[in-house]
Amino acid sequence: MTATLFFVQALNGLQFGLILFLIAAGLTLVFGVMDFINLAHGVQYMVGAYLVAAFSAWTGSFGWALLLALPTALAFGLLLEALVFRHLYDRDHLDQVLATFGVILFLNQGVKFVWGAAPLSVPVPELLSGSVEIANGLLYPVYRLAIIAAGLVIAALLYVLVNHTRVGMLVRAGASNASMVSALGVNIQRLFMVVFGFGAMLAGFAGAMVAPILSVEPGMGDNILILAFVVIVIGGIGSIRGAFLAALLIGLVDTVGRSFAPNLLRLVLDPAAASQTGRAIAPMLIYIFMAAVLFFRPSGLFPVKR
Amino acid sequence: MTQIAETQSAPTPSLSTRLEIIPVVLFAAFAAAPLLASFSGAEGYVLSLLTRVMIFGIAAMALDLILGYGALVSFGHAAFLGLGGYAVGILASHGFEDVLIQVPVALLASAAFAFVTGAISLRTKGVYFIMITLAFGQMLYFLATSLAAYGGDDGMTLASRSLVAGSDLLENDFIFYWGCLLCLFGTYALSRSIVASRFGRVLRGTRENAVRMEAIGFRPFRFQLAAYVISGMMAGLAGCLLANQAEFVSPAFMTWQRSGELIFMVVLGGLGSLHGAIIGAAAFLLLEEFLPEILHAVSFFLSEETRAHLAENWKMVFGPLLILIVLFVRGGIMGLLRRPHHD
């Protein structure tokens, strides 16, 4: 029983980790290339979820909604870039933190203004509803498997894009030394815009994918943003590979920790105390993990060489 | 590098004596406010609003000490508000209701947390520091939400305000107000003397150029850590007061948005002047309090329904306002006050 429970939790952790990766990938690129700390990346995830909720109510189909939501999320990201973020690239981090914090306040209230404060729900697409038996007697929802598959496909595409294309080469070069890339005649402003729009779209995609399994509500991007920060800090800012590994680690540590910390503590404490402390410690695990990583490697597991 | 160090050096004596008027006026205003409040007709409301202003003033000033003078962008300072608040709440629920026990415990807890997290965070630089302090703040937030015995997500209501050496003095809003003013003044005087001391100069030197400070024989890490611990303790004190003011403690004390608000208060008031942070806290809280009404009044030409809708969604104005202030008002309110003297 414990083994199958562990397996299910590990799958959940994998799914959560991949969603985190989709968000963290954009964040780490934006930071790596532009040296820009974007707190508003979490609201782009929220906007993705709201867009898919709105479009699926309108078209009645999740597939169409996803197809419509992605370009809209991209356009929205580019709009924010042009309106606000572009003016912040050469400001210090403090200004960037504050201004993007302002964007969060605005957009969290903005979605309340447009869609109301009550959570929206998005139906799971017909094709991917139901569960499959992955081991004897063990059912797992198809939709979650679909998220895992989509996450892995995107990760593979990103790998090819970043490591084997010209744009990817520029992005990597930009992460190492943006001013040198600019001096070599690359339009760095446009590169920034491409990276930014792409990151926003990835976050929007993550939001769209989780919309059917989570409730879509204002502020849903705030907590996941912090987790994405933890991921990119552990992975090393600017490193896609680091973000991927760190996202999976965080996803697993968090999900598995929450269900097994009380059980593990039961070995050393009496049951009541174990479940109390277990519940208290589990949400802190990833932060303790991050502190441990940073203690030994202050610039993350895979620091980008500068 | 040399140029930066020179342009940002301490203001000339003549300028600084002129600027000393501001803190005097500020504290005089706080001292006079309760007397004026009794004429306003809404005494309780004015007092409680101003008490909150002073409490957040302490917290913002604590942050200014490391942010303005040490360039350490701590994005988890609300955690100390929570530590102070929970120290009061948890001790009170176990029957220790006296500030003589609660405040030392809160200060010790804040110092310990600041020491441990600071020692780890200060190993990192720049944006890593921002994110790691943020993460430590979140860690404490989640710990508080899972403390089922102490209210969990919902927080806990205090039976009464803390006792002072056995007497329930603080139940009187006036006395509590004066107590907060005393704390504000005490922490302000303390911060002033820290900033003016050799310690403060080393801290500022580290802000300008850590490598150079090392070259002349200082270990910046120790100074930064000490400043971080002091700052954390001051914010912890603010947390004790805040719990007493609200007679309630909850994890909402230490959300990361609250940490962001504290940074905003400091920047709004003007970095690195201490009283600027108090002014920033006042401006922030008053804006938060009155923006809905201001919006309602300003939009007189719209229909009543739209006006109500606008007032309800005041944060949609607040957010962009924040962005505009960051983009266009360099130096915050203190910068605006200072500008005429420069010309």
UniProtKB/TrEMBL annotation, chain A:
Gene Ontology molecular function: any one: transmembrane transporter activity
InterPro entries linked to this entry: ABC_transp_permease, BCAA_transport_permease
Keywords, in A-Z order: Amino-acid transport, Cell membrane, Membrane, Transmembrane, Transmembrane helix, Transport
Broad class of where this protein is predominantly found: membrane
Regions that span the bilayer: 6-32, 39-58, 64-85, 97-118, 138-162, 192-214, 226-253, 273-296
CDD domains in the record: TM_PBP1_LivH_like (cd06582)
Single biological process term from Gene Ontology: amino acid transport
Membrane topology note: Multi-pass membrane protein
Superkingdom of the source species: Bacteria
Subcellular location(s) of the protein: Cell membrane
GO CC list: plasma membrane
Family of this protein: Belongs to the binding-protein-dependent transport system permease family. LivHM subfamily.
The protein, known as: Branched-chain amino acid transport system permease protein
TrEMBL record, chain B:
Molecular function GO terms recorded: branched-chain amino acid transmembrane transporter activity
Main location (coarse class): membrane
Transmembrane helix as UniProt keyword: yes
Membrane-crossing residue ranges in chain numbering: 21-39, 45-67, 74-93, 99-120, 127-150, 175-195, 225-244, 264-287, 317-337
Keyword Transmembrane: yes
UniProt keyword terms in alphabetical order: Cell membrane, Membrane, Transmembrane, Transmembrane helix
Membrane topology according to the record: Multi-pass membrane protein
InterPro entries, sorted: ABC_transp_permease, LivM-like
Subcellular location: Cell membrane
Extent of the signal sequence: none
Pfam families per the UniProt record, alphabetical: BPD_transp_2
GO CC annotation: plasma membrane
UniProt protein name: Branched-chain amino acid transport system permease protein
Species of the source: Microvirga lupini
